[in-house]
Amino acid sequence: MAGSWDGSHDTGSQSDESHQFDKLHIEPLYDAFVCPLTKQVMHDPVTLENGQTFEREAIEKWFKECRENGRKLACPLTQKELRSAELKPSIALRNTIEEWTARNEAAQLDMARRSLNLGSSESDIVQALRYIQHICQKSRINKHVVRNAALIPMIVEMLKSGSRRVRCKALDTLRIAVEEDEDVKEIIAEGDTVRTIVKFLSHEQSKEREEAVSLLYELSKSEALSEKIGSVNGAILILVGMSSSKSENVLTVEKAERTLENLESCENNVRQMAANGRLQPLLTQLLEGSQETKLSMASFLGELALNNDIKVLVARRVGSALINLMKSGSIPSREAALRALNQISSEASAKVLVDADILPPLVKDLFTVGANQLPMRLKEVSATILAHIVNSGIDFDGIPVGPDHRTLVSEDIIHNLLHLISNTGPAIECKLLQVLVGLTSSPATVLSVVAAIKSSGAIISLVQFIEAPQRDLRLASVKLLQNLSPHMDQELADALRGTVGQLGSLMRVVTENLDITEEQAAAAGLLAELPERDLGLTRQMLDDGAFQQIIYRVRRIRQGEIRGIRFVTPYLEGLVRILARITFILPDEPGAIQLCREHNVTALFIELLQSNGLDNVQVVSAMALENLSRESRNLTRLPELPPPGICASIFPCFSKQPTITGLCQLHRGTCSLKETFCLLEGQAVEKLVALLDHTNDKVVEAALAAISTLLEDGVDIEQGVAILCEVEGIKPIFNVLMEKRTDSLRRWAVWAVERLLRTEDIAYEVSGDPNVSTALVDAFQHADYRTRQIAERALKHVDKIPNFSGIFPNMG
């Protein structure tokens, strides 16, 4: 066989190959078979009046040129004029040529058959495949010849060749063979041929991918084969990837896209496309398909996991259709629609769905009882959708959900939600609590929810969920109570004290493991929001050993030994606020003093002052240090002087006061950071002064309040001023006054400045600073009554107001 084909001929154009195969004959070629004009074997020979024979098409073209050029009709060979342009079909010659051609093609086809085995040379196989392409393109009848000769399976076998050139040519040959031929497609559909073709889509060589996708495009025109292509694992995934590829050539991308369009005829393929990110066909069928198809597509949409951007797009396209389906009477339709809406509902898509009027039917489904009520499992889905939507931050106060302009935060709606929460199972309770979490997270709606909860007396019931065994339910409950606590702190404190075990349960959540979870952060936040001066609550926590656990956790976080970066900030803030509670009961609770001593709580709060970036931690730490410092003067041990001797008692002039060293210059007694909480230890004053330059007004105010304990009555104010001078704290206090940041901060600054100006040297130096005087005058003119009094005294210290003036009564 090797010498039978013109093996030297390599790839060329299709016309070149056709011409080559037309010249390749097994039987001798007779001159009578060849047209003198085309020099090719004739297909439709005709004879002129002079007996010369030509290809019909060629001689007709010759006659036409003669007429167009104004020449007389003449024979192309003899150039003699013809009397007539009549063409007589040469039937006998045509039949002879056809028989000769058939014998040659059969012989050549047999040669091709013998070449189509994996043992043949690459060039022989490629030439055989070219010949099969050639005869298939000549006529549809030849495709039947190829099929009947059982060549299709042999071509498929060539896909296993180790030669890329052979594989590409085999794919291309199959494409030509299946074009507009259902019979050949049926052969391809048998066995694993389709799977083999699909595998070529993931080959490294772009040419093989291109040939494979072109073949699949032709096959996908058959509905039966569309289903089979889709059934091959990974086929649709790869095609979807190719259709959106930036690296494939344009032809391959286009063929992949058109193949996918053909595959859309099968519903299962549409579902696979949706699962692989090509949602448009599914959405189209959901909108335009039959009722059965809509139900099927909605059901599948309810199983898909979508990102937020896709959820928004899907909500815009089919949100209204799904809502209409949800409102239909059929439970299967309502279920399919609800599950689909559940998948596409999110904070991102909430506005789209709300604009599509999803809220009224959702609320109706939740509250309807009787013949038309939803099963509880579907009410849970409704509650989940509602929870997704309300957590979006939309102002629901103005969006009607029922008659009489009722909204989600209308009192009766909240009462109905609370009733459902108390009378359903854990799963739906969790979702309904999440709805309330969303509504209480918005400043626009929280007060309406608080009012409804107060009027229903439901706070006790809500607190009980803290002990629920289901983590999600506990989390939703704690987050809700945390949102309510700024508005119902005392009610919550009373409920926690009055309910056995709830406070302990919260503490167990806060300290249950080393990984910081959202639930722990929320529980810490809830405890932190409870009234800080509620003595009973703090004592209960003290008796339960809660503060020791808090101290342990705070120190572990500071040392980097506790994991959970995502929630560490709110968790630490909550822990520090809880711990600070102990400093509010120091005057009334010896046990609190003992705990602060044992665990050196003052040092811990000083360390926390340096929590850069955690403003709330710094604020609370400074407040706690203010309380601890104020208690110092009650804890300082004054020195005990030895009794005078006999001579000294008789002759006082001979007595000499003993000198005692090591006393605190501020409290005039024995002090320490650990035992008496004195801020002169541990560089506390320096760190507080450093915070006066903070950009957060609340941090500055808390730091200034703590510093002011050095200047209060009951301590040596002159020494307090001296301490501030040592740490260069005087100027920062005056700067706070001059910056006029907030009314509250100005009150503290005016108070501190007045105390500083009692020192003559400072008063003398400041009297020449117009900025300080201006700030004091401004406070004297515009501040509240008490601050104006203090500003008046400060101005007297710098001689800006005469001492005999009495604008304000002397308040001491």
UniProtKB/TrEMBL annotation:
GO biological process, one term: protein ubiquitination
UniProt cross-references to SMART domains, sorted A to Z: ARM, Ubox
Pathway as given in its UniProt record: Protein modification; protein ubiquitination
EC number: 2.3.2.27
InterPro entries membership: ARM-like (IPR011989), ARM-type_fold (IPR016024), Armadillo (IPR000225), RING-Ubox_PUB (IPR045210), U-box_domain_protein (IPR052608), Ubox_domain (IPR003613), Znf_RING/FYVE/PHD (IPR013083)
Catalytic activity: S-ubiquitinyl-[E2 ubiquitin-conjugating enzyme]-L-cysteine + [acceptor protein]-L-lysine = [E2 ubiquitin-conjugating enzyme]-L-cysteine + N(6)-ubiquitinyl-[acceptor protein]-L-lysine
Entry-linked Pfam families: U-box (PF04564)
Keyword Transferase among record annotations: yes
Keywords for this protein: Repeat, Transferase, Ubl conjugation pathway
Top-rank EC class of the record's enzyme: transferase
A molecular function (GO) term: ubiquitin protein ligase activity
U-box domain mapped to chain residues: 28-107
Keyword Transferase attached: yes
Top-rank lineage group of the source organism: Eukaryota
Designated name of the protein: RING-type E3 ubiquitin transferase
Designated gene of the protein: LOC115738641
